[in-house]
Amino acid sequence: MSAERIRLSHTRLSAVLRCFSNIIPAHARSAWAGIVASFWVFSLGACAASTATIPTPTLSPVESGREVYLRVCAECHGANGEGYANELTAPALDATEHAWHHPDQQIYDWIANGKLGLGRTMPALGDQLTHNEILAVIDYLHSLWTAEQVADQQSITERYPVTLAPRQEP
Known about the structure:
By secondary structure, the chain is mainly alpha-helical. The protein has two domains: 3-49; 61-158, Cytochrome Bc1 Complex, Chain D, domain 2, CATH 1.10.760.10. The protein contains seven helices and two strands. It has helices at 3-21, 29-49, 61-72, 74-77, 104-113, 131-143, 147-158; strands at 115-117, 120-122. It has a two-stranded antiparallel ribbon with strand order 1-2. A hairpin with a 2-residue loop joins strand 1 and strand 2. Helix 1 runs antiparallel to helix 2 (29-49) and helix 3 (61-72) packs across helix 6. The relative contact order is 0.11.
């Protein structure tokens, strides 16, 4: 049994003991705690023998994209896509500016290969992010826009050929 699972079990046991310590009479607490502790030790043995694992929650593409965005993009574009987070004056990516005017393929290209524009440069991130991470960031950006903006942006995206992959250098 992993140390993490034992820690989780111990945390749960402690919570149960705290919860019931207020309703168990003082003279019965030590006996009750002993019974619960014995049950806990028994259940640890049963859990150790079990091959079952605690499922890891799966993040949605938007949640995954937000995690990547916060790690890689927020320094320049702001924690919520509001833009202008530092001296590089990276534009807003939320509903307040025009990021939603661009097709997904172009946004993908800018993330993977970088972008020049108006006295500022966005670095290429294709060597730091996987294909799926870039797609997740784009999903997260969609979540920052209004429903009407997303619908318009998806219409724009449908008019462009699908080429969602980083450029290969010769």
